[in-house]
Structure formats: C-alpha cells, structure tokens
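Limitations

Structures in this collection are predictions, not experimental determinations, and the ligand pose is part of the prediction. Treat each record accordingly. The example that follows, with FE2/S2 (inorganic) cluster as the small molecule, is included so readers can see exactly what is and is not provided: the inputs are given verbatim, and the output is the predicted complex.
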Amino acid sequence: MNEAARNQLLTKMLPVPNNDRARIEGDWDDLQGFSSEARYGGLENAMSYVRNAWYVAVWSHEIKTETPFAMAILGERVVIWRTASGALHALEDRCVHRLAPMSLGRCEGEHIRCMYHGMLFNPDGRVVEIPGQDIISKQARVQRYAVVERHSWIWIWMEPRAGG
Ligand code: FES
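Predicted complex:
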C-alpha cells in the first residue's frame, strides 16, 4: 500500500461523532470500494505464493506413460500425465463435477477421464464428454498448467493458463 492510500485509510478510520451517521455511512461506502491491498495493508499479497515462476514438480522418471501422477504444489492439488506420444499435461486434480481426484482416473489418448462418473477432460481442462449427456457447458472445466521437461525434471508454471 502506498503512503497516500495508507493516509487515506487512516483518515477514514479516525473516530467520528456518533451522531454523524451520514458521514459514517459515506465513509463505509468509500472503504468498500478500496482494493483488498488497501483494506488489509498488502498482507494478502505478502502471504501469497509467487505464481509467475517455474517450479520443479517431479523427477522425469517418476511420470510413467499414461499413468496419472498426483502431487501438491503451492497448496494446490495437481495431476500430471504423459501421453503415449510423449506429451506432458497438467491439470487441477479436482474434477469439476464432484471434486473427485482426477489422478484416480484413466488416460485416454491425450485426454484424462474421471472415473467417478466418467467425464472426459482434454489437456486444456475442458470437459469434452459426459456419459449420457449431449450438452456440455463451457464452464465445465478445470485449471490447466504449463509443464515442460528439462534436465531430468518436470517443471510446472503455477499461473493457470488461459483457456483452462
Ligand atoms: S466426480 Fe468426476 S465425473 Fe463426477
């Protein structure tokens, strides 16, 4: 929080006469419009992880072909898998339907299927098949993450990718 914003916030938090109701309500309305950084002194940002960075996720040899691998990084559950073509994919390890771990699912080509009710996800995290249902909402998706393989490691970029 910059100094001007801090001074503005402190000014608004100074006690005001109880009978000055209109001013109190006006101040509260103004305070509601503040960013969370202004309200919490930047504490939220200080507590968050750096997301725009590559993190070592796992040794390359630990990712077997067409076998979902479950892991947690930055407090988030992630599933990583390697397809028969050698491509690597990473998605949020929590099905959009009933939050079952996707890592308990099955690889199907470039896709992964949640085995609880059978939704099929593409590598972008979108649901592309729902057993017994033709219409699929565009909202039916999970986060996807970029992954690369370098120097015997699998690296993951924890900022969710667009479209996933
Ligand atoms: S929990 Fe995944 S399809 Fe129902």
